[in-house]
């Protein structure tokens, strides 16, 4: 299998290295062959080529079986007036690969409950899978700017809502058969289209229960009743906000993975955390989010369920027994974390 | 002073009655005269007149010194396909009164810390004032709908951002001289206009510190470091989501007030909670959010600071000593809560 890696900026290269090392260790043990090819994206790509998503990168990603991304962005490139921004590379890549469904699983490992801002009793049985629409909405709508006005258009087509809804319901079938759809249908036209489309598609899945929530209520319910939710499907910007809110419950962003999937097999896998410029280059970033994203890559793009589960079990072992990196209350370096996961594979 | 009350739907009339009773008790004690005039808005207005904001209501509000609103909406009127919705009345009223700055203070009373989903140590010193832009953004932008597409336009002018920013900085001067501006400037054009305008206006307030946060990070930081924030200013939809998230920290929505202010004196005051159809008509709704909104009315529209503080102290007394309504772990009815606050005025 051909895996393109896009280490990107900040701690991106450090956590990508760790994830690749784990994938190689898994390949060795299971007799798989993975070919890795590294390309530029984000700030480092702007520095080298002037473009946040160089053509060579995009071409390689399109031919790959899966794409692994570290992180993009950093203070060096974040002048709001700048014409070219690292994030544009990531958004363009998501669009070009057609990865419309961004999966963000959230579980709270018991060993980390003490790090969560939430009370322990709230965290029991939290197991949520967010399915965030990733290639539509205000992220990709028309924008205008004059001296004294700016606009962003949020747009959704029925077809865009249908496909991400189906993905959410299919995932719910394999879980607890419950889907919560989040919108702002009391105010937004796109949300009314969202709600009526989700309701119609839900009828194709009589075995799965659907409920609707308004995004403001959901922001509250994620804190007061987090264990009530199974699959949560929502549009791009609401998903951006709600998944970061939910991520705070896990105690650290450092260990949360994501998978972005389209109709085809090629998926885009990245940890939820950003480029973390404050700790970049120090070898202390937590690589578990990246390593768990690699597990999702094996599961969703390569069909290697056993290997994916092996990695997840190894990460759980490390969370239970240590070592722990700084963000989760320990002192271990990125490479110590990586080595501990590899040791736990056997 | 002329106060228009808009009891609205669900528990709206119950909590409005309680707030009016407290205002009358305060008037008696301080020698003020308040004239109350009640009008229809929301679902009950649709039932009576076909319109969510009848002309008579709007006219009365425009002539008033202040407007007090209970809540609007309910299952009876929430078919997403409906042409007329209760919320439209509220949105039209906000626009017509020009109340562009929605103030939502958040403090966590020690007696209620056990009800919060957040760990107690996180709640220490939490004292945030949200200033949500209330008459712009996707709430009021152009909407389109065809069989297979929907759009919402989010639009901001520099002037709209300037005025709400100035309000936020002026409020910060009276508090801890810190403003956090929240946007999504790495993706949205309106957010880039927002950020550059806020940055420019901040220079007029050298005594106040400004920081910018992205909305997704802020959704996380409100949980991990809530005591870091003083005044938080943001656009309409982000404010809707973040203030509900923050409200969850307080342990109950039932006791959070809000004030919506424009350039003039007339303000719109409402508890944060909705119409709560599940408990409407039972006399058990918590009236403290409404009563605290009445205190904000005295402060911001009538300039009665002492009377406002007296109400706030009485509510704090009731929170400390009881009685408590159901939502905050007790059994007291709406009228028992109201009477306890009135008794504590002396
Ligand atoms: C970097 C940014 C453009 C991105 C987004 O908003 O989608 C990030 O916050 C994310 O959630 O992956
Ligand atoms: C009822 C609804 C339109 C309203 C809003 O979204 O502004 C409410 O959620 C609020 O926050 O006051």
UniProtKB/TrEMBL annotation, chains A, B:
Cofactor(s) essential for the protein: Mn(2+); Mg(2+)
Binding site for NAD(+): 74-87, 274-286
Top-level division of the source organism's lineage: Bacteria
Annotated localization: Cytoplasm
SMART domains hit by this protein: Iso_dh
PROSITE patterns attached to this UniProt entry: IDH_IMDH
UniProt feature coiled coil, ranges: none
Location (main, coarse): cytoplasm
Isopropylmalate dehydrogenase-like domain mapped to chain residues: 2-341
Residue positions binding substrate: 94, 104, 132, 216
A Gene Ontology molecular function term of the record: 3-isopropylmalate dehydrogenase activity
Residues carrying the site annotation Important for catalysis: 139, 184
Record note on quaternary structure: Homodimer.
Matches recorded under NCBIfam families: leuB
Role noted for this protein: Catalyzes the oxidation of 3-carboxy-2-hydroxy-4-methylpentanoate (3-isopropylmalate) to 3-carboxy-4-methyl-2-oxopentanoate. The product decarboxylates to 4-methyl-2 oxopentanoate.
HAMAP family linked to this entry: LeuB_type1
Name of the molecule in the record: 3-isopropylmalate dehydrogenase
Organism of this sequence: Dyella caseinilytica
Origin organism lineage: Bacteria, Pseudomonadati, Pseudomonadota, Gammaproteobacteria, Lysobacterales
């Amino acid at each position: 299998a051909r895996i393109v890696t896009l280490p990107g900026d900040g701690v991106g290269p450090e956590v990508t290295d760790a994830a690749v090392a784990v994938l190689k260790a898994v390949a060795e043990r299971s007799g798989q062959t993975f070919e890795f090819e590294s390309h530029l994206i984000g700030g480092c790509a702007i520095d080298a080529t002037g473009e946040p998503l160089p053509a060579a990168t995009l071409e390689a990603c399109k031919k790959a079986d899966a794409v692994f991304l570290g992180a993009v962005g950093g203070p060096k490139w974040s002048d709001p007036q700048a014409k070219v921004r690292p994030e544009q590379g990531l958004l363009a890549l998501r669009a070009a690969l057609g990865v419309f469904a961004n999966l963000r699983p959230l579980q709270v490992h018991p060993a980390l409950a003490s790090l969560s801002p939430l009370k322990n009793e709230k965290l029991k049985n939290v197991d949520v899978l967010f399915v965030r629409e990733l290639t539509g909405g205000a992220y990709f709508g028309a924008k205008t700017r004059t001296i004294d006005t700016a606009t962003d258009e949020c747009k959704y087509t029925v077809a865009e809502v249908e496909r991400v809804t189906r993905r959410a319901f299919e995932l719910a079938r394999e879980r607890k058969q419950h889907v919560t759809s989040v919108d702002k249908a009391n105010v937004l036209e796109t949300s009314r289209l969202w709600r009526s489309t989700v309701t119609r598609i839900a009828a194709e899945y009589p075995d799965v229960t659907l409920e609707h929530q308004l995004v403001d209520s959901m922001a509250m319910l994620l804190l007061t009743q987090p264990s009530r939710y199974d699959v949560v499907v929502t549009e791009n910007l609401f998903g951006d906000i709600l998944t970061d809110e939910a991520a705070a419950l896990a105690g650290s962003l450092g260990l949360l993975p994501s998978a972005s999937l389209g109709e085809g097999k090629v998926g885009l896998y990245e940890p939820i955390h950003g480029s973390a410029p404050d700790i970049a280059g120090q070898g202390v970033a937590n690589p578990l989010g990246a390593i768990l994203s690699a597990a999702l890559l094996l599961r969703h793009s390569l069909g290697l369920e056993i290997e994916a589960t092996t990695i997840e079990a190894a990460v759980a072992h490390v969370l239970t027994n240590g070592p722990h990196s700084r963000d989760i209350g320990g002192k271990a370096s990125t490479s110590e974390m990586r080595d501990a996961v590899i040791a736990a594979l056997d």
